Amino acid sequence: xxxxxxxxxxxxxxxxxxxxxxxxxxxxxxxxxxxxxxxxxxxxxxxxxxxxxxxxxxxxxxxxxxxxxxxxxxxxxxxxxxxxxxxxxxxxxxxxxxxxxxxxxxxxxxxxxxxxxxxxxxxxxxxxxxxxxxxxxxxxxxxxxxxxxxxxxxxxxxxxxxxxxxxxxxxxxxxxxxxxxxxxxxxxxxxxxxxxxxxxxxxxxxxxxxxxxxxxxxxxxxxxxxxxxxxxxxxxxxxxxxxxxxxxxxxxxxxxxxxxxxxxxxxxxxxxxxxxxxxxxxxxxxxxxxxxxxxxxxxxxxxxxxxxxxxxxxxxxxxxxxxxxxxxxxxxxxxxxxxxxxxxxxxxxxxxxxxxxxxxxxxxxxxxxxxxxxxxxxxxxxxxxxxxx
Length: 389
Hints:
It is a single chain. With 389 residues, the protein is mainly α. It has four domains: 18-151, no CATH class; 157-258, Arc Repressor Mutant, subunit A (Orthogonal Bundle); 264-346, no CATH class; 349-389, no CATH class. It has helices at residues 9-27, 37-42, 46-55, 66-85, 90-101, 116-124, 142-151, 156-176, 181-190, 200-214, 232-241, 252-258, 268-281, 285-301, 305-315, 321-336, 348-360, and strands at 105-109, 128-132, 135-139, 178-180, 217-219, 223-226. It has a three-stranded antiparallel sheet. Helix 8 (156-176) packs across helix 12 (252-258). The chain is globular and about 75 Å long. Residues 362-368 have low confidence and may be disordered.
């Protein structure tokens, strides 16, 4: 079974409950429908209102007092709605559309969850968090509903374009970890989905909006990276040092699938390790899969046998040495078949196979890799412990 140690658990729970109450009291006040935009804005703090002003890129009104600022935003937000929504992807559009279809109410459930998505909607002045009949909800002001229903069909082509941009970018980063801006555009050109010159500003704004909402990728001036990559600049240098290796090229469909939320590489090796954990330790499928996904994230950044073993020992009640041997064999196999960031989207096994084919096609200059020499896949392990097993 899985084992975990949580120090001062009761103190942590008290702090969490205290923070949830503070957050709920501030942002989930009792509401009612229909809600007017002026009233929704008046419930916010002055700092919240200025955040909306900055999100909408409105200048010259920073010195207005709260009532005047609220009135200005009440007049401005509906007229700017189409410009804002034209930078959203399908999942963002769907939240707005669902809310409008349900008389301006989007149900979040009976349990309060602190989520940055709440802040995103509030910062755009589109949806406001409230409590309604003991349930947590978003409420869309009546002025926003009316403006949205008038233009919802007009923005659909932009929504489709934006969704492709975001999913393809995120899909690439799932396999590569990080991409320079020039490499990203080169890939988009290959897929015939690169923004036109007049769309460049929209492209960056779309990725900013979607990244802010989903929290899955990070946009930097010179590169884009997946959020789970802790050392993107170091990874960029590793990739640069592999100048002999081109990026593994994926199809548009593969990238769109990788761009979906909560994507992870699920191959035969992944399934075998999940099955081993379920059978050996009587854990649920969800628990076993969560462990393997965490292991895959670790293998993307480091291949350290001590850390891999420690992770296993911390999570499971190991009774026999043979369990460690079985686990380690499955973990190595998983590593060798995992498409890796530092290998530009190739797996160690793919590179080893390609190396062997190249060698076999050059009989005049046959290069033999000794069992104790570094594996040509780049894992840092000896060949006999890696692809030469």
